[in-house]
Structure to design on (964 residues):
């Protein structure tokens, strides 16, 4: 209460200093005049009375100052003085100020950009109705997790959960429009999808429960804005037109808005009502089947006042009830996890790891920038010794000087942060455009980014400004240890960045110039999509036999085979983890036929191939065999209750970037047939194959729409990803090394000028050039060495998380480490020797005569 | 004016609160009132009165208002707030206890020990 009153009073006077001035003035005048009138009344002559009243009152200005101090105004007044003084100081040394601002803009800017991206992806709410109550619902159990579930489960949860006011289901599907060679992305959604999000159509209408859920409703299709422009040339009369989807007619009822924010970043070309799945996908049982894990994703909206935790409890009860109805289809201890769904990306632990990695790298840049500036400020502190000495002599306290110096750093940091803020906006904007981000995502900074930028400025000011300000204020800036620490920190941080950049560059080269273990240039993968059309295993087998033999008959086709997982694909990927020698290992198990190894050019190193349909045999990849049976012949051993019959060369067909991934192959069974993909190898380039394969598929079963991919395009996409990462980190690494070089250069130059006299004496006494250099650089040799060591150890630990993206290059790859050390040593030597040469040119006579 | 007595640290605030508690006063009036009720024994350094007045107002113990003085001039009048009244009461109690304690200590004679 009292505090509040004081704050109000402080605010009142602080905001109106002129009013305080005039009130004090009036009060003092009244006082002195009243006193002089009293004196006159007692017989003192008028002029003498006035004079005496003034003398009795004392120094008006010092009393006024006391008033200001009693109101707590002196502090803010001094702050203002400090800020103006700091501004003047910075303006007077534009070279220093510009360098410092540039260093800060880079250091903080990289972080602001990274945070801006994080904000857009994870923190910002979707611009939809009440985004905070949206949840993503996924099946979990201690052993399993699935992002999809059967549609009947969704219906059960929707009808019985009181904690959910609505439930939405989505199911992605490739669909074919009449006249197109390649399928387009379709998405079946429950008809409440758009009404729950509160989305309004750009043209026509969107799906809605009243019109699209009734039995016998006309099959409707909603086009995405981009697809309407690309495919239909932004036809203004599109609404009401009939299009052919999977050879079935559908009426276009509307177009989604340009800046449509969908759940989980879905961006299909065509939206279709969930109730029409059996119509568009002939023979599909997606809406009725309760077994097999299902194929829809579930989203929910929490009822008013209900938290996700409460909803999870109710859903757990419902899951247990569901288990009674379908005992086989619900896992042990299954529960439904409700994650916040109102953001672009639903946060998962893997995403956090990636973000933490990026955050660490960008903070390293800031560390280099701060250490660098710290060095500059220390050196500057020495040049200001004279000024500070005078101020101390005329009575300034150490505390006052410290405050003044730190204000200067703070002002610098805030200015640098402002530049970084602008830079972050421009870079993020460019990035969003480049990756084709949804139109609703804007790079415009919100309060979180502003807060982050200010926070960064404060943190930076403390890191680079606190120690030099303290040392300078205590007039002890000549201590060596601070300088050594700063050099060490810069070397260590740039070492980490350089090595990581080196690792990524090596990974790129590795993937470009070494064999990935399988042939991809001439192989196409065809997914006929039998499972989604509810083919039985027997029917699927018959289909595959016919399809394969007709493909083999095509000119230029050398080999055809089946696999349960499409190499380099992202669908139907299954992994299992095995515990080998106490370490969890990721294994990709595929079910293949005997022609797989020949089609994919994966050599069988040892043992024999799989026989058609055999149920008890397994082929291990070389590294898996070596890990499981070190130093032994694996053939004839048992692995997972199967006989090991052979060893194949390593081929990271499923996870090119994960050097630790391992493969095992089993013979495909008839029951696997509906979900198999066909791999076709051609003699020459594979580009001619898709149209021919398509017409074969068409003639066998016209209701299927096979999805054909060229493995080399997927390969190139994978390579591009790592190339981009390598480029970004290399840029950071180069920036860090340049900053460190500038920092070292400045500090050595400063050391030389500081010790000119000592050098002169040494030269005068006959020291050789080598000795002179050594005397100056000795202190830096240690800090560079310690910094390098710290950087190496730090990277060795940090890079563990990188293993999965290095394409098989070890995270302790010696070339990357040695390369980074080499570059840093060369840069450090040049940066140190360049300014140190000046020491050798010191003229002893002149230097010693100087004072 | 008469001989000045040095004020104990912190007692100026108490005297101002007391003076103002008897009716609202302008700054110069506070000075006169203290002089008067101390039987002209106590005189306060004139300039140091104002920092004290502003501080007390800042703490919310007194409030001020511009008004007309006896000689028809504009002057700032100070009066006690509720918080100030409480403060004065507790300060008075404290002072009384302290004064009697010190007095009894000073009256102690050797034979009393």
């Amino acid at each position: 209460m009292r505090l509040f009153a004081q704050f109000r009073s402080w605010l009142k006077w602080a905001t109106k200093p002129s009013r305080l001035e005039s009130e004090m003035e009036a009060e003092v005048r009244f006082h002195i005049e009243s006193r002089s009138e009293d004196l006159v009344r007692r017989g003192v002559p008028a002029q003498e009375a006035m004079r005496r009243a003034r003398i009795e009152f004392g120094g008006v200005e010092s009393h006024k100052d006391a008033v200001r101090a009693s109101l707590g105004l002196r502090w803010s007044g001094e702050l203002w003085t400090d800020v103006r003084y700091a501004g003047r100081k910075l303006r007077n040394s534009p070279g220093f100020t510009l360098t410092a601002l540039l260093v800060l803009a880079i250091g903080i800017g990289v972080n602001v950009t990274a945070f801006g991206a994080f904000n857009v992806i994870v923190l910002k709410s979707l611009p939809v109705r009440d985004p905070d109550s949206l949840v993503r619902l996924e099946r979990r159990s201690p052993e399993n997790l699935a992002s999809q579930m059967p549609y009947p489960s969704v219906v059960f949860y929707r009808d019985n959960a009181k904690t959910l006011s609505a439930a939405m289901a989505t199911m992605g599907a490739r669909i074919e429009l009449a006249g197109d060679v390649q399928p387009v992305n379709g998405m079946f959604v429950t008809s409440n999808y758009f009404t729950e999000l509160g989305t309004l159509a750009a043209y026509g209408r969107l799906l809605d429960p009243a019109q699209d859920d009734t039995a016998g409703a006309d099959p409707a299709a909603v086009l995405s804005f981009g697809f309407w422009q690309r495919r239909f040339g932004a036809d203004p009369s599109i609404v009401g037109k009939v299009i052919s989807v999977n050879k079935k007619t559908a009426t276009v009822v509307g177009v989604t808005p340009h800046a449509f924010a969908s759940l989980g970043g879905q961006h299909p070309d065509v939206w279709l009502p969930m109730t029409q799945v059996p119509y568009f996908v002939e023979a599909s049982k997606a809406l009725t089947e309760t077994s097999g894990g299902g194929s829809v994703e579930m989203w929910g909206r929490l009822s008013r006042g209900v938290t996700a935790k409460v909803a999870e409890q109710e859903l757990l009860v419902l899951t247990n009830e569901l288990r009674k109805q379908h005992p086989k289809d619900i896992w042990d201890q299954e529960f439904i996890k409700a994650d916040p769904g109102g953001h672009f990306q639903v946060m998962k632990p893997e995403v956090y790891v990636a973000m933490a990695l990026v955050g660490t790298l960008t903070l390293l840049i800031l560390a280099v920038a701060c250490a660098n500036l710290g060095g500059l400020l220390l050196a500057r502190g020495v040049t200001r010794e004279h000024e500070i000495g005078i101020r101390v002599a005329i009575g300034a306290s150490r505390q006052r000087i410290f405050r003044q110096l730190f204000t200067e750093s703070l002002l610098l940091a805030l200015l640098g942060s402002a530049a970084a803020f602008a830079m972050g906006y421009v870079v993020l904007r460019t990035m969003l455009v480049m990756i084709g981000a949804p139109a609703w995502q804007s790079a415009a900074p919100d309060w979180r980014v502003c807060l982050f930028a200010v926070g960064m400025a404060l943190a930076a000011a403390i890191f680079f400004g606190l120690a030099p300000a303290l040392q300078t204020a205590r007039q002890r800036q000549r201590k060596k240890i601070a300088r050594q620490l700063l050099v060490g920190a810069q070397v260590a941080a740039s070492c980490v960045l350089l090595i990581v950049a080196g690792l990524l560059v090596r990974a790129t080269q590795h993937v470009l110039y070494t064999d990935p273990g399988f042939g991809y240039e001439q192989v196409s993968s065809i997914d006929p999509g039998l499972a989604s059309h509810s083919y039985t295993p027997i029917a699927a087998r018959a289909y595959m036999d016919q399809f394969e033999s007709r493909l083999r008959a095509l000119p230029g086709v050398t080999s055809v085979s089946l696999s349960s997982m499409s190499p380099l694909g992202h669908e139907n990927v299954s992994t299992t983890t095995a515990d080998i020698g106490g370490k969890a290992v990721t294994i990709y198990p595929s079910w293949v036929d005997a022609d797989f190894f020949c089609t994919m050019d994966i050599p069988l190193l040892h043992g024999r191939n799989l026989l058609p349909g055999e149920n008890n045999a397994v082929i291990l990849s070389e590294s898996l065999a070596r890990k499981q049976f070190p130093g032994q012949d694996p053939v004839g051993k048992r692995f997972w209750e199967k006989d090991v019959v052979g060893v194949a060369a390593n081929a990271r067909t499923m996870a090119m970037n994960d050097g630790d991934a391992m493969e095992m192959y089993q013979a495909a069974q008839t029951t696997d047939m509906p979900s198999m993909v066909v791999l076709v190898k051609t003699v020459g380039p594979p580009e001619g194959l898709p149209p021919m394969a398509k017409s074969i598929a068409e003639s066998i079963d016209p209701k299927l729409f096979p999805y054909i991919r060229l493995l080399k395009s997927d390969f190139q996409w994978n390579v591009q990803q790592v190339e981009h990462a390598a480029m970004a980190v290399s840029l950071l690494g180069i920036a860090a090394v340049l900053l460190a070089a500038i920092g070292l250069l400045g500090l050595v130059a400063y050391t030389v000028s500081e010790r000119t006299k000592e050098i002169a004496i040494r030269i005068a006494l006959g020291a050789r050039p080598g000795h002179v250099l050594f005397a100056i650089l000795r202190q830096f040799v240690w800090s560079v060495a310690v910094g390098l060591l710290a950087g190496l150890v730090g990277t060795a630990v940090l890079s563990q998380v990188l293993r999965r993206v290095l394409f098989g290059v070890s995270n302790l790859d010696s070339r990357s480490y040695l390369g980074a050390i080499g570059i840093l040593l060369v840069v450090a030597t040049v940066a140190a020797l360049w300014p140190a040469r000046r020491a050798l040119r010191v003229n002893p006579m002149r230097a010693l005569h100087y004072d | 004016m008469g001989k000045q007595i040095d004020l104990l640290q912190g007692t100026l605030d108490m005297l101002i609160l007391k003076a103002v508690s008897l009716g609202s006063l302008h700054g110069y009036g506070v000075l006169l009132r203290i002089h008067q009720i101390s039987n002209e024994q106590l005189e306060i350094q004139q300039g140091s009165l104002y920092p004290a007045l502003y501080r007390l107002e800042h703490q919310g113990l007194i409030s001020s208002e511009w008004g007309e003085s006896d000689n028809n001039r504009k002057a700032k009048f100070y009066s006690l707030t509720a918080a100030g009244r409480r403060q004065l009461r507790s300060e008075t109690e404290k002072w009384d206890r302290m004064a009697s304690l010190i007095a009894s200590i000073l009256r102690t004679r050797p034979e009393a020990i």
Observations:
- Residues 155 and 167 of chain A are 8 Å apart (CA to CA).
- Chain A touches chain B through 29 residues (CB under 8 Å).
- The mean pLDDT of chain A is 84.
